[in-house]
Design a protein that fits this description.
about 110 residues, mainly beta, 3-stranded antiparallel β-sheet, 1 helix, globular, disordered N terminus
Length: about 110
């Protein structure tokens, strides 16, 4: 996963994940673990950013300040991916509703 000169520590495990209410539960049978993910919360859309775009302005985002990204769900788990896509004009940001949240790409 990293350059040829580095050694990754990790395991292959299975997980069961759900949304905050426990209504949407998914089995992830093959998950690759890593000690850390090189992701920063600065990459997460804010309410102020989303409100700038008319096609996204009615979207309610949760407060994620102080949280850490600890899980990435890949294309090998399509049932846990896209439920709804909200797009705007060409080149505008979009939002994706998953069973767990609404994610905006700004």
């Amino acid at each position: 996963m990293d350059s040829a000169n580095s050694v990754d520590e990790g395991e292959i495990i299975s997980l069961e994940i759900s949304d905050m209410s426990g209504d949407n539960v998914f089995e992830l049978p093959r998950v690759y673990t890593r000690p850390t993910l090189a992701l920063r919360m600065q990459n997460v859309a804010s309410v102020a950013e989303v409100e700038k775009w008319p096609h996204l302005s009615d979207i309610s985002l949760p407060d994620v300040s102080g949280l850490k990204i600890m899980l990435l769900i890949g294309q090998d788990n399509p049932d846990a991916m896209v439920y709804d896509l909200r797009s705007g004009p060409k080149g505008a940001p979009y939002a994706v509703r998953t069973p767990f949240s609404l994610d905006c790409d700004l």
